[in-house]
């Protein structure tokens, strides 16, 4: 028998209903079901609540019920334990969610039967080095998509010094500076004009947001690079990691970005290619 965890969108009614239905279906068949405590309380399954530090013990698979944001949270919870993730799409077409809600039990049966593939996605490890009161303090955060140093509510552009493998590169003057994974190249970095990178690659993407300088290009760096971003020239910058606002960085505060030790492991069931997803997402149609 398998142990399955559900992580769900907290404001999506269909996610709560689907979690209850799928949990009952699994338990009737002798499988163990777990949910993070807040998720369990929201859907009325308090008896299945599990603390985050125990969620991944002997866990076979985690199921994300929502959209790409819920997938990011699920990946954060389980990827350091190398637990695979099934993404169930309850909204618009996403890059990370593959399974339709109506086909969840079919997907679970296929997973139990071993009829699936694993797509390993590079993640970032974002180490914060900051002493400022409004900064998140020293620590390391994982990211499947990106880390961003961007404008604060004052609206002033940021100045961010970039150091790659100990070698100073340049200081960006921009609305923000993004460091992303190939998976994250389809998110904020794409909106900033960065290239789309197939997620089966490993690389670090550095993309400025509305740069106020002559050099305005994105950079694709090797996956083994260490990229240090330092807030410069007496301008604060807001730090966010995968959409989570962590705090405000001041002059001299820095983040150091490297490839995380463990990738995300996303379960796939069909042969839809990265280019197929891009074509569907942007309405490119047949050519």
Topology record:
Layout: E1 3-8, H1 13-28, E2 32-36, H2 37-42, E3 49-50, H3 52-55, E4 61-66, H4 68-78, E5 85-89, E6 99-100, H5 104-113, E7 117-121, E8 124-129, E9 139-143, E10 146-150, E11 158-164, E12 167-174, E13 176-180, H6 188-191, E14 204-209, E15 219-221, E16 227-231, E17 237-241, E18 244-249, E19 254-259, E20 264-268, H7 274-281
Parallel strand pairs: 1-2, 1-4, 2-3, 4-5, 5-6
Antiparallel strand pairs: 7-20, 8-9, 8-19, 10-13, 10-17, 11-12, 11-16, 13-14, 14-15, 16-19, 17-18
Description:
There is one protein chain. The protein has about 290 residues and is α+β, with helices and mostly antiparallel strands. The chain folds into two domains: about 5-120 and about 265-280, Probable inorganic polyphosphate/atp-NAD kinase, domain 1 (Rossmann fold), CATH 3.40.50; about 125-260, Sandwich (Tumour Suppressor Smad4). It has seven helices and 20 strands. The chain has helices at about 15-30, 35-40, 50-55, 70-80, 105-115, 190, 275-280; strands at about 5-10, 30-35, 50, 60-65, 85-90, 100, 115-120, 125-130, 140-145, 145-150, 160-165, 165-175, 175-180, 205-210, 220, 225-230, 235-240, 245-250, 255-260, 265-270. The strands form four sheets. Strands 3-2-1-4-5-6 form a six-stranded parallel β-sheet, sandwiched between helices. It is globular and about 60 Å long. The chain starts with a strand and ends in a 6-residue tail after the last helix. The model has no long low-confidence stretch (mean pLDDT about 95).
